[in-house]
């Protein structure tokens, strides 16, 4: 079974051999198509080298936010990602107990969560059973809805992105990848095992999501080629849409600073202050700060907005839908010439799975040339298999979204989620007060 804890809207359908299971919760990424959601809050334990006395660092601010995804046919589950974490303090719902159970640990789990004597809860189930059998129904519901105990995960694989992956590593959720069981890794661009991968000990690279600028080419005077044009062009003023969710507004702000490379601004206090200053300026020019991709698309279609930052998969899919309908292309996209920030999808094997061999076999299939070609051509995703890359849709090549050689990956910036996560709460508070509230 797999859980998807983050990614582009393009991930709403799986690669060859995967099954879409339904709709899930809405988190900081939108448009996904399956039922496994991530839960929180989760304590972030901090990154090496960060000063715990720094007032900007809010220890414990990390959060595994809701997100949706799709589930391969290896299995399915509706249980939140947080149910995999060892420490009960990281959970927001009761956990079935293995160490004090009569049947499945439901009563003892509820008792621990509510701080009651387990006997009281068990007696309550017996009374409800005697009163028309409702105790059996309630117990079955508890078994389905409560989080699984440690080392009995409801999932075998988890598709993670950046901070989700980091939280999993720090909480020892993932098993080391046995690369001999995933021989197709040799087909992955080498760059993924150097600069891009967070930690290939625990994660198999699968795809990349990139921030692009989506715009109405019939309503702007000329193509938009640079991030800073959002601050300078008169024809864009009052007609800009910016994604609300952290850390994406941080990424946009970094490209508006004078730092070189732009993302260097994220790694210093002065740089983060500069990002907030640029976002204040941008807020005076935007139409809105959107919290769902559908809102941006609606505003683009109506002409209220002529440009906004969006993720490559969803943006390309929107473009291709126009092509397929044979209509004039109104909405197009660009990868700014100075590059853009990306997130990395990595699949991890969940600790405690009883299907480790099968999970790794499925991972090997997912990065195969066949599966990667299918994913690219149906979901317009940026893929990692170097043999499949040349067969991606021509539009991805035209817009320089799909790298065809190792050096091409340099146009995508990556942020160390282990560094940025402890600053999340402080930056969000400042963004709310200094930018959105003004």
Characterization of the model:
By secondary structure, the protein is an alpha/beta fold. The protein has 3 domains: 2-92 and 150-208 and 344-403, 3-Layer(aba) Sandwich (D-Maltodextrin-Binding Protein, domain 2), CATH 3.40.190; 106-145, no CATH class; 210-341 and 417-436, Periplasmic binding protein-like II (D-Maltodextrin-Binding Protein, domain 2, 3-Layer(aba) Sandwich). The chain has 14 helices and 13 strands. Strands 1, 4, 5, 6, 7, 8, 9, 10, 11, 12 and 13 form an 11-stranded mixed beta sheet that branches. It has a two-stranded antiparallel sheet with strand order 2-3. Helix 1 crosses helix 2 (118-130), helix 2 crosses helix 3 (134-145) and helix 7 packs parallel to helix 14 (424-436). It is globular and about 75 Å long. The model is unreliable at 1-91 (pLDDT under 50).
Topology summary:
Blueprint lengths: L1 E3 L13 E2 L51 E2 L33 H9 L3 H13 L3 H12 L11 E5 L1 H8 L3 E2 L28 E13 L12 H4 L7 E4 L4 H9 L12 H15 L2 E5 L2 H10 L4 E5 H13 L6 E4 L5 E11 L5 H11 L2 H11 L2 E2 L10 H5 L13 E3 L2 H4 L3 H13 L2
Parallel strand pairs: 1-4, 7-8, 7-9, 11-13
Antiparallel strand pairs: 2-3, 4-11, 5-11, 6-9, 6-10, 6-11, 6-12
Helix pairs in contact: 1-2, 2-3, 6-7, 7-14
């Amino acid at each position: 079974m797999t859980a998807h804890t983050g990614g582009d809207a393009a991930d709403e359908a799986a690669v060859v051999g995967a099954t879409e299971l339904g709709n899930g919760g809405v988190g900081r990424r939108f448009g996904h198509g399956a039922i496994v959601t991530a839960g929180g809050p989760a304590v972030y334990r901090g990154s090496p080298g960060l000063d715990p006395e720094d007032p900007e660092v809010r220890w414990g601010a990390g959060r595994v936010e809701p997100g949706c995804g799709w589930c391969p046919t290896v299995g399915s589950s509706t249980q939140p990602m947080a149910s995999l974490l060892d420490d009960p303090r990281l959970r927001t719902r009761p956990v079935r107990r293995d160490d004090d159970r009569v049947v499945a640990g439901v009563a003892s789990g509820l008792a621990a969560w509510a701080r009651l004597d387990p006997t009281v809860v068990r007696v309550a189930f017996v009374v409800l059973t005697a009163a028309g059998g409702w105790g059996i129904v309630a117990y079955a519901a508890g078994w389905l809805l409560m989080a699984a105990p440690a080392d009995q995960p409801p999932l075998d694989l988890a598709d993670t992105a950046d901070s989700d992956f980091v939280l999993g590593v720090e909480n020892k959720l993932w098993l080391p990848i046995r690369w001999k069981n995933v021989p197709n890794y040799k087909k992955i661009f080498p760059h993924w095992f150097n600069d891009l991968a967070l930690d290939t000990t625990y994660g198999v690279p699968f795809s990349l999501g990139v921030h692009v600028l989506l715009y109405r080419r019939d309503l702007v005077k000329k193509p938009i080629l640079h991030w800073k044009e959002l601050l300078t062009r008169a024809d864009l003023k009052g007609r800009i849409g910016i994604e609300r969710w952290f850390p994406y507004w941080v990424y946009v702000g970094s490209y508006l600073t004078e730092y070189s490379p732009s993302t260097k601004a994220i790694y210093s206090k002065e740089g983060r202050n500069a990002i907030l200053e640029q976002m204040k300026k941008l807020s005076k020019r935007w139409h809105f700060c959107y919290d769902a991709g559908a809102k941006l698309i609606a505003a683009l279609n109506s002409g209220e907005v002529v440009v906004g930052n969006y993720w490559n998969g969803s943006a390309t899919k929107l473009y291709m839908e126009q092509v397929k309908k044979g209509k004039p292309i109104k909405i197009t996209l660009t990868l700014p010439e100075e590059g853009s920030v990306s997130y990395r999808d990595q699949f991890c094997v969940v600790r405690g799975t009883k299907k480790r061999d099968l999970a790794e076999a499925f991972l090997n299939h997912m990065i195969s040339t066949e599966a990667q070609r299918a994913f690219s051509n149906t979901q317009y995703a940026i893929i990692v298999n170097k043999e499949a890359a040349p067969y991606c849709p021509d539009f991805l090549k035209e817009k320089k979204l799909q790298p065809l050689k190792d050096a091409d990956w340099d146009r995508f910036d990556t942020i160390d989620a282990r560094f940025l996560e402890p600053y999340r709460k402080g930056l969000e508070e400042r963004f709310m007060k200094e930018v959105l509230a003004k």
